[in-house]
Structure formats: C-alpha cells, structure tokens
Amino acid sequence: MRALLVAANPDPRSLTHYVLGRLEAALQPVSVEIADLSEERFDPRFTEADRRAYHEGGTYPADVMAEHRRLERATDLVLVFPVYWWSMPAVLKGWIDRVFVNGWAFEHSPSTGLRPKLQHLTTHLLPIAGDDSGAYERHGYERALRTQIEHGIVDYCGSRRGSTAFIYESEQLSPEARMRGVDRAVRIISEAIHARVAE
Known about the structure:
By secondary structure, this protein is α/β, with parallel strands linked by helices. 45% of the residues lie in helices and 20% in strands. The chain is built from seven helices and seven strands. It has helices at 15-27, 48-56, 62-73, 90-99, 133-139, 141-155, 175-198, and strands at residues 2-7, 31-36, 76-82, 106-109, 113-116, 122-128, 160-164. The strands form two sheets. A five-stranded parallel beta sheet has the order 2-1-3-6-7, with helices on both faces. It has a two-stranded antiparallel ribbon with strand order 4-5. Helix 1 packs parallel to helix 7 (175-198). The longest helix has 24 residues, at 175-198. The chain starts with a strand and ends with a helix.
C-alpha cells in the first residue's frame, strides 16, 4: 500500500498543510508520498504540447510523466484542498487536466469508445470549506462538488471511489471546533485506507 497525498495551497502555514501533516502521521505504517503542487511549482497550464499528447497519447511532457510515475506507485490518492468558488483551486484542476489524460488515465476513441485505465487506484477527497455544512446542503454545493470530482473525474478514469470527508467552517469556528473537524476528516480518510490494508 502506498498513499499519494496531493495538496493545493500556496501557504505552507495553511490549514491545508496542517491537515496534510496530520493525515501523513495517521496513515503510518502505510507508505506516504506528498505532492505539494505549490511548493513544487507544478505548472497547471494546459499547453499546445499537452493538447497534442491528449490527442496522440504516449508522448507526454516530462513533468506530466513524473506525475504518472507517482500515481503508478500509489494504491490510494488523497486530494487535500481548500474549496474555491465551490470547486478545487486552479493548480489542482490544472494538475488533473494535464495528468489525467487520454492514453494514460483512460482511452477514448470514436471507434472503441471509453476505456478507463486507473482501476488500480482508490481516490479519496478531503475538501476544506469555509462555509457550514447547512449552507452546502441548502445550495447543493457539496453534491455539485462531489458530482464534478467523484463522477466526472474518478469514475470516468475507472478509479475506485474512496472516502470523501469535508472540513466545514474552516475560517469561522473556534480553534477547538476546527480541530474537531480536522480530527473527524483525518480519521475518516485514514480508517478507509487502513481498512484496505487489512483486506
């Protein structure tokens, strides 16, 4: 078992990074690799070279191939990110745009249709939300985010759905209440991964 934790927040002192550290510790003895997209300066821009690779498959930019190797080593992927405008930060969206590409994450052609390729991977989500769970439920924000990522990306590429654990009110709650939210989310994700180890 090997977990790849992908973080998207430019501030190393952020709650995102605190959660990342807590999750890494909770996952022991599972092997953990961290991809801090901001610290590593991952370029999220989908370029002409990416477009060619998407259509042709097999000739990917070097930084994309490095991410493929990371994901090929992983059994579990955990996306840890703040919710921006009811979605993921641009750097994480760009990572998915560039890395989860035709020919590697899936194959699609008019003649054969869709063939997902990430069946070896289980994907978990740990979104950090500024608003409360009631607002997310009333406005359909959680459902929209889960549909976009779980169905639109995870299912499409054939990855298994793992656990999704929101941390709500990350900017409004008292430090004690915020830590209870962190504890809950870290427990949900780590227990899901440890349960797979025990299978």
